[in-house]
Amino acid sequence: MSQPTPAIVAQSAVRRLPRWALWTFCLAYVLPGFIGRGPWKREDITAFGYMAEMARGATSWWQPDLGGLRPELDALLPYWIGASAIRLLDGWIAPDLAARLPFMILLLITLVATWYATYNLARSPLAQPVNFAFGGEARPADYARAIADAGVLALMACLGLAQLGHETTPALAQLCFCALLFYGVAALPRTGVMPMLACAIGLTGMTISGAPSMALAIGTGCVAIYLPSARPAATEETVKPWKLGLLIGLALLAAGLATQLDLWRWRIDLPTAGDDDWQRLGRLFLWFTWPAWPLALWTLWRWRYQWLHLRLAGRHVWLPLWLAAVASVATLTTHAADRSLLLALPALASLAAFALPTLQRSVTALIDWFTLIFFSGCAFIIWVVWVSMQTGVPAQPARNVARLAPGFVHSFSLTTFIIALVATLTWAWLVKWRAGRHRAALWKSLVLPAGGAALCWLLLMTLWLPLLDYARSYAPMVAQVQARLPKHVACISTLGLNRSQWAAFRYFGDLPLEGPASGAKCPWLIADGENAHTTAGFRPGQPWQLSAVFSHPANLQEKFLLFERLEK
């Protein structure tokens, strides 16, 4: 006799979340952060720099180059996508906005793919709720739709998705293709070509986006999970053996493509035995995946019979668990820990959704109260600081801003004010709605976390956007350097500039930069003041004179040195 599922769900609890409301949630989360800002340091402007150089034909599309430096991550496809958008929209919109438009679509695809992946997992037999003696249990399709809605809300509520999900970097492309692969393997038992097509796109996209090892690990692991289901079984849907063979073939083709393009790189960077590295990783796991990780752990506990005693039959737990495990291992063994952990968010959000049918009312109330206090407090702080910058009342927040970002001049924008006000009023209405109506809805516990995350992100990207642009952009430093240079400069030599700095001078200043070797006869030289090797070669008697030292207004430790050649 099989153990009953821990999910006890009535039909009244799977009422439909209106599609317009879900899409409004998604758009309110996706659009802010892509529109209205400039490229931010460091990874954001670095990736954009490669795209801009490729679009203007200054570097090869197969071997991108930026100031003599190859990309830190061998990810061709994201650069191709951004460069193509810049070329296609040249003359219509700004290049940085053109590069961000396709990445906006990638984030939307991530949300959609996560919804369909969770939906297909919830349709599996072992994920279904308990059958009531006299009927009234949730119908399978309605139950799966409610779980899928909760999965998307959980993904938007994850704190780590906010910034990295709105940058034009290979990490976002990897996230999108990982979510597509997640949908493909989740829907593999079903008929149609879409699951296999999603697997093919996901494996290929992850490979060309710089994550071939993770693509191969996820693909082969999912095949192992489905192997017990390759034969007809009473507890799980049947997966045709030819589908598993095709999935193996796709994984091998992706590995061959990575070999052909020379994308395999050894990037293992194990944490040291000291406490600092482990504390840093612990804090990252704690806040980056919040609030999905506690719900995901609860899912593993409450559904333990389905995924332990029935072994690999509970695919609604095993598939997302495997994807999250692969991303977590990559997080622990690579230096780009946050960008590796980003790929775990769709799987963790799916696991979190399956916790909702098993939560007690007191737990859901605790989640609601904590979310209400946390996000309302964050929104209040954002508004207070903005009002202080505009009016000087209260005075202390404005003084703090002036101290942290000297030279920043705030201004009033009626459009952003109206958008922020409407978002805040919508949050107030959402809190009232959550307290008064639809108390039985299965996805109710994640409405406030997702709404609060969307609210705070939207307020930051409207009310605080000029301040953040000033603090997180190289534009103020580039403007200082430009003011010191003559209007027409034949070439400028560089020394010690990293990828993001080089991209900033090329985009914000349109300066004719040259490397140390090719720019040996240039009349000016820009050097990185933070680099210990920058000034090591400048000794008395050499033909360079220090002309100026520039610091970033929001980070005085970040400096540029401007030298002028003495020999004419």
Domain count: 3
Counting DSSP E segments of at least 2 residues, the number of strands comes to 5
Structure annotation, total helices: 23
The residue fraction in helices comes out at: 55-70%
Helix vs. strand class: mainly alpha
Overall shape: it is globular
Instruction: Tell me the span between the first and last alpha carbons.
Output: 91 Å
Order of helices and strands: HHHHHHHHHHHHHHHHHHHHHHEHEEEE
What Rg is obtained from the alpha carbons, in whole angstroms?
A: 26 Å
Unreliable runs? none
Strand content: 5-15%
Average of the residue pLDDT scores: 86
The largest pleated sheet is described as: 5 strands, mixed
Write the layout of secondary structure elements.
Blueprint: H1 19-30, H2 43-55, H3 76-88, H4 95-122, H5 140-157, H6 161-164, H7 170-186, H8 194-208, H9 212-226, H10 241-260, H11 275-288, H12 292-302, H13 304-309, H14 315-333, H15 337-341, H16 345-353, H17 361-391, H18 395-404, H19 414-436, H20 447-460, H21 465-472, H22 475-484, E1 492-495, H23 499-508, E2 513-514, E3 524-528, E4 544-552, E5 555-565
Parallel strand pairs: 1-2, 1-3
Antiparallel strand pairs: 3-5, 4-5
